[in-house]
Amino acid sequence: MSVCFTARCAATPAGIVARRAPPRFADRSLVTTPSTSYAHHQKRRGAVAAAAGQGTEAVAAALPQLDASLDDRLSQRPLELDPAGYFIIKVDAEAKELVADFYTNFINEQGLACDPVTGKVISCKNGGVRLPARSWRGRSAKDLSVTILETDHGFQPCTHLEHANYLGRELQRAEFALLAGAAYVQD
Length: 187
Description:
Elements: E1 9-11, E2 17-19, H1 34-52, H2 56-62, H3 68-75, E3 86-92, E4 97-103, E5 106-107, E6 113-114, E7 134-138, H4 141-150, H5 161-180
Antiparallel strand pairs: 1-2, 3-4, 4-7, 5-6
């Protein structure tokens, strides 16, 4: 007898497949069906894309407004650098693509990112030229993040959840800049 295992099925002790009940939430507003969330995503993306032709102000109006003080406070929280490396995100407006260049590093005793070849602290200022260990291109934030985070490259470019979270946010910002025809500066 073959037994099917899926995300919604589980084997009983007798080997019979039993369907799991959906998770229960106190707040039913947290539950969305895939079709509902996809439709909402497409509607929002369409509004942003339509506004992109009207300039940056129109795109900003199409997006929900953020609490600037909350954003500033969250930007100041202490973070541990990812020992796997770091990303430099760019927008290639001519090719209509996002670019993510990955650079390796090691973290010294003071918690600073250092060049694995020279051992020197990597400056945030444009002091020297380093070649990326790997570079990825994509048409959207989702395309690029799935390629980077969910594909086997023989190494893990993100070993901290905070780093993957940051990468996703920056790719979204870069996509917004690409759609709006605006300049992108990585945070």
